[in-house]
Amino acid sequence: MSCIDKIMAFPGDVGLYYHVIGDAEAPVLRGADLPLIAASVIKIPIMVTAFRDFAAGTLDPEETVEILPEMKMPSCGALSYMHDGLRVTVMDLVTLMIILSDNTATNILIDRLTPAHVNDTMAALGIPGICLRRRLFEPALSARGIQNTITARGVGTLLERMARGELLGGPDDNAMLGILLDQRLNGKLPFYLHSEGVKCAHKTGEDDGITHDAGVIFAEKPFVLVMLSNNVEVPAFERLMQDAARELTFGA
Fold first, then answer.
1. How far apart are CA 40 and CA 62, in angstroms?
2. In sequence order, which residues have a C-beta less than 8 Å from that of residue 149 and are 6 or more positions away?
3. CA atoms within 13 Å, Cβ hemisphere of 190
4. At residue 65, what are phi and psi to the nearest 5 degrees?
5. Which of 27, 111, 119, 149 has the fewest CB atoms within 10 Å distance of its CB?
6. Rounded to whole angstroms, how far apart are CA atoms 206 and 29?
């Protein structure tokens, strides 16, 4: 049974987008337009919006931001553990948001950019199925079912256009891929790849019953692989992510 067959049969709410970049064949899809709770994969469109604003001159990547105690968010990242009053640049925030999934950096950027602006940017770029509705760690809104959502088609389309240099344009797309390549959380798609020298530009996400990874894998024939899931057995789906990335890179 191939990894694709296993993904198609996996129980739960699953989104799949697999496509060899430049291949004339249509992407392999499962649940491609199913809205799923985004977890930290929502940080990719936030990064794209920031870079688009850098290019437009409406956001300065070198502007410094002071990290105050009330800004600090729990769990992933570094800024919550740094001294109060630390000053970092907006570009530092973008980088930390991606490579360490820093939640403090993310909420600062959401406040600066606004959800409406991120969503308008995705619409302007022709990226479907991505909706940022709120900051991270807002339990009252979460309890009311107000969630950030993504689709496999939306994330896959975004990454494929980025990899082709057709999202924001070559230099900006290359810069964003460079940040994604510096990802430090590598237990899912790249698990078997790094030791073989295969690069993976990706972003993970997780929560209760949720595990995602979405990236560009620079195999002999580079491809985009987006595996999203809600309401699944997380360890089993993460093992499938590892196995699928290996099989699609090296063969069965």
1. 24
2. 35, 36, 37, 38, 129, 130, 131, 133
3. 23
4. -125, 135
5. 111
6. 21
As a whole number of angstroms, the distance between CA 213 and CA 41 comes to 8
pLDDT tens column, 46-68:
999 999 999 999 999 999 999 99
- Looking from the CA of 131 toward its CB, the CA atoms found within 13 Å total 11
Counting every residue written for the chain, the total comes to 252
Side by side, the strands of the sheet bearing 210-217 are 28-30, 13-20, 223-230, 210-217, 200-207
SS (H, E, C) 25-36: CCCEEECCCCCE
Largest CA distance in the chain: 54
Write the Ramachandran bin of 251: left for phi over 0, alpha for psi from -120 to 50, otherwise beta.
left
What is the token pair recorded at 97? Answer: 């948001």
What token pair was written down for 52? Answer: 């688009």
Q: What is the pTM of this model?
A: 0.97
Contacts 24+ apart (CB under 8 A), 238-241: 238/187, 238/188, 238/211, 240/3, 240/6, 240/7, 240/10, 241/188, 241/189, 241/191, 241/211, 241/213
Four-point Cα dihedral 146, 147, 152, 156, nearest 10 = 120
pLDDT at residue 74, as a whole number: 86
Q: What sign for the dihedral angle of Cα 178, 249, 14, 155?
A: positive
Cα separation, 81 vs 235, whole angstroms: 28
